[in-house]
Each structure stands twice: as structure tokens, then as C-alpha cells.
Amino acid sequence: MKKLLLLVAWVFCINCGIVMASSPDIAVAVVHGQFAAELSCEDELMVRVPDTGEEMVLKPDRYFVNAEGGTVNLGARKFGAKTLRFVVKENGKPIEVNKKAYRGSFEVRISADGKTLDVVNVLPLEQYLYSVVGEEIPVIFPDEAIKAQAVAARSLAYNRLGNRSRLGYDLKASEEGQDYYGLTTEKQAINKLVDVTAGMVVTYNGQPIEAVYHQSGGGQTENSRDVWGRYVPYLRSVKDYDWDAPMYNWEKALPASEIERRLSTRGYAVGKLESIRLSPLEGGSKMFGNDRTASGRVQEM
């Protein structure tokens, strides 16, 4: 899904255009919590077992990894290891995972549940951004808008580095992290604009900000506490002039019986739903009850 940059209230202690000294590698879980996955390459693949130092070379072909027995296995071959690494020679053909091609190398790890796999793409952060920005913003947008998206995506990536190291990756290749599909979504014109902004991030108190963004704010963004339950000083509710965005208005209807069912499965057996009462939306934010956020959206009912 294409997304537009979320403009937040950047207060006086946010610095724009700070350039990071070097480009680290980033670890992105392109597969999470699956029992098996397909890896393939048109070049030879080097497989390494970090636990034992064992190495082997695979000819160009398709291979399947699985989590049978709580270890990472290559088809029927069992290494008794929690992690396998797959690399190609320098300037070799890209590795494909579930038929999508990616830059860099891969680690296949046993997930935290001990029963499934995480397939983690390890590559330079700047190259990771080629795919992310290519997915998140149309190539026909003005160059400055694309560069702004690149700075936001880079800031968020730096903000996430190391946060999930115990799981073996920095973020997921989904909207929970940032949409990332490898070479599939790269566009040469966008890659050049990512390069123009190389290393540039937005910081707050010297640290890269959590530069979250979305397709549309529906006219007003939210305070971070109302979304994630935690206070972030620069993610405050502000007007969002995005009425041309495709998702500015949307609607989903639920019958009363479905609401009753969902409440019941969460331990709230309310019986037959008679009505839903909310504080009035009219009158501006000073008139909202405690059931609404600063934007007027429903927080509880």
C-alpha cells in the first residue's frame, strides 16, 4: 500500500538533516513465524552453520528450509542448529525467498516460539531503503517529497536498530515495521533520490526519531499515547491537510451481533446489545468526553 509522509509537530529540539557517519547493516524479518520457506538462487549458495563453523556450497537451485524438531533444517538434512546463514559471492545473483529477490545475505533462525522460522535479510541500511521508499511513495511525486519520505524511512529504520536484537532482527518487512519487498519495489529514479539524502535523519535529543507515517491522517493525527499507550514528545495531535488522500474517508459496518460476539470472546458477555453511547462530536475538542481522543475519534465506548 502506498503511504504518504505523516507530518508531525517537530518541536524546537528536533534537528533535521543530521547525517549519520556510516551506514550499518539492518536485519529485516521477511518471513516470520512460518514452519517452512523456499530459498533459491541462480548462483552458488554458501551455507554456514554458526554454531559449528560447518560450511557447504549448494549448486544453483531451489531449496526448502523447515523448523522440524525445533532446529533449522535444509530439506531432509538436519544440522541440529538454531541458525543457518546463506550468502552468495560478491556481485552474485540475488537470493530469492518465497520467489521474491533481495539484496544481501540471509539468516534462517528458529523463532521465539521454538517451532517456526524467521527468515532474516541482512543488508546495508541504505540499500534497504531503495525498496521501502519505492513501495511507500509513487515515483511520479515531486523529488522533494520523495526525499522527505527517504529521510523519514531512514530515521525510523535507525530508530529501530537493535530494538529486537534478542529476536535476531531489527524490524519486520510489513506495516508493523516498514513495507519491504526487496528488488520487486525498487525504482531507479527513487534509488537516486535515496542516494542524494544518504545518511540524513531527523533527531530528537540527539537520537533518530520514531518517524512513523501513514497513508492518511483523516484530517488530524493522534497523540502517541492514544495509539500506543506511551508518550512521545514529538508525536502530538496536529491538523493533517490530506483531504485528497484516497483513504481520507472510509467506512466499515458491523452488525450488533458481531460486536456482541467480539466482546464475548474477550470476556465481556454483555448479552443483547441495546445501544452504544458516545460523547457528542460537535463543539470542538474542549467539549469531548473522556471516551474520545484529541482528534475526536472514539477511544472507548
Q: Report the principal-axis shape.
A: globular
Largest sheet: 7 strands, mixed
Termini Cα gap:
30 Å
The topology string of helices and strands comes to EEEEEEEEEEEEEHHEHEEHH
Total count of strands: 16
Q: Percent of residues in beta strands?
A: 25-35%
Count of runs of 4 or more consecutive helical residues: 5
Report low-confidence residues grouped into runs of 5 or more: 1-13
Fraction of residues in H or I helices: 10-25%
> Structural class, judged by helices and strands?
alpha+beta
* Main β-sheet, spatial strand arrangement: 5-4-9-12-13-2-14
> How many domains, as an integer?
2
The whole-number mean of residue pLDDT values reads 90
Radius of gyration: 23 Å
Task: Describe the protein in words.
By secondary structure, the protein is α+β, with helices and mostly antiparallel strands. It folds into two domains: 16-212, no CATH class; 256-301, no CATH class. 18% of the residues lie in helices and 27% in strands. The protein is built from five helices and 16 strands. The strands form three sheets. The protein has a seven-stranded mixed beta sheet with strand order 5-4-9-12-13-2-14. Strands 8-7-6-3-10-11 form a six-stranded antiparallel beta sheet, with no helix packed on it. Strand 4 and strand 5 form a beta hairpin. Helix 2 packs across helix 3. It is globular and about 70 Å long. The chain starts with 13 loop residues before the first strand and ends in a 36-residue tail after the last helix.
